[in-house]
Each structure stands twice: as structure tokens, then as C-alpha cells.
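Continuing the batch. This is chain 6 of the set; chains 1 through 5 are on the previous pages. Same settings as before, nothing changed between runs. Recording input and output for traceability.
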Amino acid sequence: LAEFERAYSDNPNHIHVLNNLATCRELSGDHSGAEAIYTKLLQINPGFLEARLNLAIVQLSSGKHAEAAATIAPIDSNCVDLKYLEIHGEIAARIAADALSSKVGE
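Output for chain 6:
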């Protein structure tokens, strides 16, 4: 993590440095820090698919299912990236489970 922090201080807008730093933060348990960096990265380059998917994963694992859906919404629905297809399916399943849980609780 220290290496990526140093790379970040040298290159604060480099998309791959940001992506790697956010991934390290997520793996070390700093979910909010990872989310903030992925969000910054997508402000710099909204089309960076890997970062968009990584942000959705962080949101999904934090229980922010609707936010994860909104994060991947700009991705072309014809995208055949396997990571996208997996995340898209997982988000849909979690949102459906949330809806079912809210109906059971009524």
C-alpha cells in the first residue's frame, strides 16, 4: 500500500495509479477510501471500465445495491466483458432480494 501511496503523491491523476491504490485500499478493508478514489478516478475518466466495475463491487459489498446499479448503468448494455456480466447479474440478484425482503416485511 505504501508504494501505491507514494505513486499517488507523484501522479495524483494517473488512472492506473488511482485504480491500483483504490484496489489496495479495498483489500486492506478501507471500503470508503476505495470508493472515494474510484469516484475520483471516474471523474477523470468516466469511460474506464475496470474502475467503474471495481467501484460497483465496493458498493455491492457495502450493501449499496442501488448505487452499484447506478454506477454500471452508463456501461453499454451490449458489453460482453465477463466481469461486467458477472457484476450485472449479481446486482440484479441483490436488488431482487432486497425487493423480496421488503415485501416479506410488509
